[in-house]
Amino acid sequence: MLFAEYPREDTLLFLERHSRLLDEYFFESFEQSLIGPGMTIAGNPFAIIALGGYGRQEQCIHSDVDLLFLFGEKVPENAQKLIMEIVYPLWDIGLDVGHATRSMKECISIAGSDYQVL
């Protein structure tokens, strides 16, 4: 059990470990993806970025998981397929996963008017 390994005073350690479990899931899901590895070869670099508590490695058990799928150029047509491969299994097990899909240009434009949105 995830909780059993940590004494009560090690809350920060627990939150960090929980965040790392999500990191491992995203790395493995990307590696096993039918879409993602092909997208890296296409000349449009991208990243899956953890936001909020997860991005700070403070992911609480019942908190939502916030992600940004960020593309260097325009968002490719098959980006939605990648998101389905990675995010849908988390929804299926009941996690609250929020995500945005944007290009760098879109992020810069949005950041100019709303600094809370990456």
What does this protein structure show overall?
The protein has 118 residues and is α+β, with helices and mostly antiparallel strands. It has a single domain (7-111), classed as 2-Layer Sandwich (Beta Polymerase, domain 2). 46% of the residues lie in helices and 17% in strands. The chain has helices at residues 11-32, 36-41, 52-55, 79-92, 104-111, and strands spanning 46-51, 65-71, 97-103. A 3-stranded mixed beta sheet has the order 1-2-3. The radius of gyration is 16 Å and the shape is globular. The model has no long low-confidence stretch (mean pLDDT 84).
Number of domains: 1
- Residue windows where pLDDT falls under 50 for at least 5 positions: none
In CATH, the architecture is 2-Layer Sandwich
Please tell me what the overall shape is.
Answer: globular
* SSE order: HHEHEHEH
CATH class: Alpha Beta
The number of distinct β-strands equals 3
Beta content comes to 15-25%
Spatial ordering of strands, largest sheet: 1-2-3
Provide mean pLDDT, rounded: 84
CATH topology annotation:
Beta Polymerase, domain 2
Structural class, by secondary structure, is: alpha+beta
Fraction of residues in helices? Answer: 40-55%
Give the N-to-C terminal Cα separation: 34 Å
Return Rg in Å: 16 Å
- Give a short account of the largest sheet: 3 strands, mixed
Per DSSP, the total helix count is: 5
List the helices and strands and how they pair.
Elements: H1 11-32, H2 36-41, E1 46-51, H3 52-55, E2 65-71, H4 79-92, E3 97-103, H5 104-111
Parallel strand pairs: 2-3
Antiparallel strand pairs: 1-2
